[in-house]
Amino acid sequence: MKTTEWRLSYVNKEFSVCSSYPPVVIVPESVSDDELRRVATFRQGGRFPVLSYYHTKNKMVIMRSSQPLTGTNGRRCREDEKLINATLRHGFRGYIIDTRSLNVAQQARAKGGGFEQEVHYPMWRRIHKCIERPVWTSWLPTATIHIIVKL
């Protein structure tokens, strides 16, 4: 993939930011490693949004991350907003696909988790599409992965 919009980041080279991410991740060029560290503190398990798929012809992407830690007080992170918005081309909107039901996502807020607030992510539409977790994953933590799709 040759593009000036994305870069390799070694912010996690010693697994110090996120133990479940590889040492090298692909992120928007306009977001610094210091900003990624701040975003990681705002996302459950430090799983900040990273590139998972890039369509070379239309430049649409899929990014993955964990839920934001907005909690009941609606905490926000401007660096997170910057990172997510950096994936949008001018004049385009995107979708945040939350793989939990709306009810489960709202319950997570009481435990410090939550979801992206529309007021802080105005160019994004959040969709809740519950995905059944296979029985063999029942031993895994209940952390939910969000998929961010640029359309």
From TrEMBL:
BP GO terms, sorted: negative regulation of autophagy; phosphatidylinositol dephosphorylation
Top-level lineage group: Eukaryota
Residue ranges constituting the Myotubularin phosphatase domain according to the UniProt record: 1-151
GO CC terms in record: cytoplasm
An example molecular function term from Gene Ontology annotations: protein phosphatase binding
Pfam families reported in the protein's UniProt record: Myotub-related (PF06602)
Family classification: Belongs to the protein-tyrosine phosphatase family. Non-receptor class myotubularin subfamily.
PANTHER family named in the record: MYOTUBULARIN-RELATED (PTHR10807), MYOTUBULARIN-RELATED PROTEIN 9 (PTHR10807:SF56)
UniProt name for this protein: Myotubularin phosphatase domain-containing protein
Species per Swiss-Prot/TrEMBL record: Patagioenas fasciata monilis
